[in-house]
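Hi R.,

Here's the input for the magnesium ion complex you asked about:
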Amino acid sequence: MVASFAHTVRGGSLAGELAAREPALAARLRHGLEASEERLRGLAAEAGDPCVARIVGHLIGTGGKGLRPLLALVAAEFGERDPGAAVDAAALAELVHVASLHHDDVMDQARTRRGAPSANALWGNSVAVLAGNWLLAKGARLAAELGPEILRLQARVTNRLVAGQIRELTGASSGEDPLSHYFAVVAGKSAALIAMALQSGAIRTGAPADTVEALAEYGEHLGTAFQIADDILDITAASEVSGKEQGKDLAVGVASLPVLLALADGGPAADELRELLTAAGRGREDGAVVPRAMALLRGGDALAEAEAMMRARLALARGALGALPEGAATRVLYGLCDVVADRDH
Ligand code: FPP
Ligand code: MG
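And here is the predicted structure with magnesium ion in place:
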């Protein structure tokens, strides 16, 4: 099974350090994650109809890796109320994430997600989209229960997610810098929800407004770094490790950051890559395009350049943490920057 971020707290690299140094926080996060997973399963079971329950249960079971719930629970530590108040905010962030991933799999024509067949592969595109919408509607109800501020955040983040995906599909406008376009897409499709998870967790426990703001800034940078890592892993990680098909972005002609950087580097390799991607974008992927594009990317400097950009974003994320009070929760947020830097799945 593909390891998860929840695993970093339960048994991964951060876990040992956390349990040794901050056993009370480690236990709270562990319990919070379990409670949020339980909440998600409970929401899926509310479907009533066994067929719908099975499909939305599959979506939840093969969705996110638990990063967003973890962030909501850590952010809750900055307020005065019981961090348990953030369990529903943690579940909400995961619910929106899972809904978006299954829509994304339809758009990408992905066959697997987290090592299991994707919902679209099992039930077709229409059912996968509708089941994702079902989850999104559950999320709206949950957000309404959490109050108007969180409901507004949920609505705004859904708009940003969709706008990010639309901008990815439409590509850079004429005259628009491809890298600015890329970062606008990533802010919408990845960073927005990571920031929202942190904000909503902190709001639930009554954290001060400047803390909520610093957490949002951290989340925007961490989320961007996280997506850059995802782009790099699409080219470098084996399917067994990532739980996804290798080179999927390339196969559907998505201009990920390494690709944009390789194209900007110019020369014959860039020309060949451009041709391959144009063929893939037109649905002419014949099985030879992805391996050749990967070989071109691996042979150039673009992967190292993308990694440098990811590290620069992580430095900005760490910078935002300077505004937070020192303590175990802040240290966990620093630690998560290292986890993202070392991502292999
Ligand atoms: C994964 O990107 C995709 C996202 C993080 C966002 C997807 C958003 C939508 C489809 C908009 C609709 C949203 C909702 C809430 C209905 P990726 O393809 O780079 O990552 P992957 O490698 O995990 O597929
Ligand atoms: Mg995708």
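One thing worth noting: Residues 269 and 289 are 14 Å apart (CA to CA).

Cheers,
M.
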